[in-house]
């Protein structure tokens, strides 16, 4: 079982690992197979929620730093 990586450079990866585990747990509880589309929707929802909170709390720089890899990969698609 993957628990996470102890490195501050991969904070977002650790967050995604946690979200994957949550998605798998919820899927098992509902007796459905986990799927990538549903996971992507969870990540996008978390992104939008954290962005809203960052704007409200005036911490957008910290938000941008944390989610930079996701932001870059979303723009390429």
Would you mind describing this structure in some detail?
The protein is mostly helical and 77 residues long. It has a domain at 33-77. It is built from three helices and no strands. Helix 1 packs across helix 2 (36-57) and helix 2 (36-57) runs antiparallel to helix 3.
Strand content: under 5%
Number of strands: 0
Order of helices and strands: HHH
Give a quick account of the main beta sheet: strands, pairing sense, barrel closure: none
Compute the CA-based radius of gyration.
14 Å
Fraction of residues in helices? over 70%
Q: How many distinct helices? A: 3
Low-confidence stretches: none
- The best one-word shape is elongated
Oligomer: single chain
Distance between the termini: 30 Å
SS content category: mainly alpha
**Average pLDDT number:** 87
Secondary structure elements and pairings:
Layout: H1 11-29, H2 36-57, H3 60-76
Helix pairs in contact: 1-2, 2-3
Using brief descriptors, characterize the structure shown.
77 residues; mainly alpha; 3 helices
Short synopsis of the structure:
The protein is mainly alpha-helical and 77 residues long. The chain has helices spanning 11-29, 36-57, 60-76.
């Amino acid at each position: 079982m993957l628990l996470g990586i102890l490195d501050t450079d991969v904070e977002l990866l650790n967050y995604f690992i946690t979200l994957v585990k949550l998605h798998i747990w919820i899927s098992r509880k509902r007796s459905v197979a986990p799927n990538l589309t549903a996971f992507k929707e969870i990540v996008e929802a978390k992104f939008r929620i954290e962005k809203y909170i960052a704007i409200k709390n005036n911490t957008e720089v910290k938000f941008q730093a944390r989610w930079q890899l996701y932001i870059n990969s979303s723009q390429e698609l």
